[in-house]
Amino acid sequence: MTGSVPPAPAFGETLPIETSTEVLAFLARRRSASAMTLTAPGPDDAQLADLLRLAARVPDHGKLSPWRFVILRGPAKEVFAEKITALAGDQANPVKANAALRKLTRPPVCVAVISRYIPGEIPEWEQRQSASAVCMQTLLAAAAMGWGANWITDWYSYDPRALQILGVAEGEKVAGFLYLGTSSEQPQERVRPDVAAITSEWTPG
Fold first, then answer.
1. Which of 67, 73, 77, 186 has the fewest CB atoms found within 10 Å of its own CB?
2. Count of domains in the chain?
3. Could you give phi then psi for residue 73, rounded to 5 degrees?
4. Residues 95-141 pLDDT 10s
């Protein structure tokens, strides 16, 4: 399922910027897999370790690592799902809230990316954006390793009681739940933005 992941480079090692047609082809066709199509097997311990190592290679102003990972899988994920299912009835749309939980229960592995703000010189907004970059990098790395992956935030990313169950501390936020597994269906291309319509070039006034 997964290709070989190179070891981490040594500190100070020169990392040349090189053309890679394979990476460009990969990015041109990158597509999230539906969480509902993700089945076992999912990444094992070693594969998860490689995946998270790659996910952490994101822009991080100040080298703060303003994020952390929480892995949910196996019986523990089932317990977590059971606990937050009890909260679904209190949501604005309980039927929709319960249906959203199927995205959590079906995939074999979930990685919650927790954004944390570290007071200091680096603005909070930059630190939160770094956590979002981790989520995107996780999607890319998972797909490159051959796994189906989906980045989701739903009501349980914001409900204070669900956050407490997950162990989210004060000042922390859920940047995303990354669902991982074997895709039982090949995803299809969806409508993409008209990039020209949302692009402008600044000129001096």
1. 186
2. 1
3. -165, 165
4. 999 999 999 999 999 999 999 999 999 999 999 999 999 999 999 99
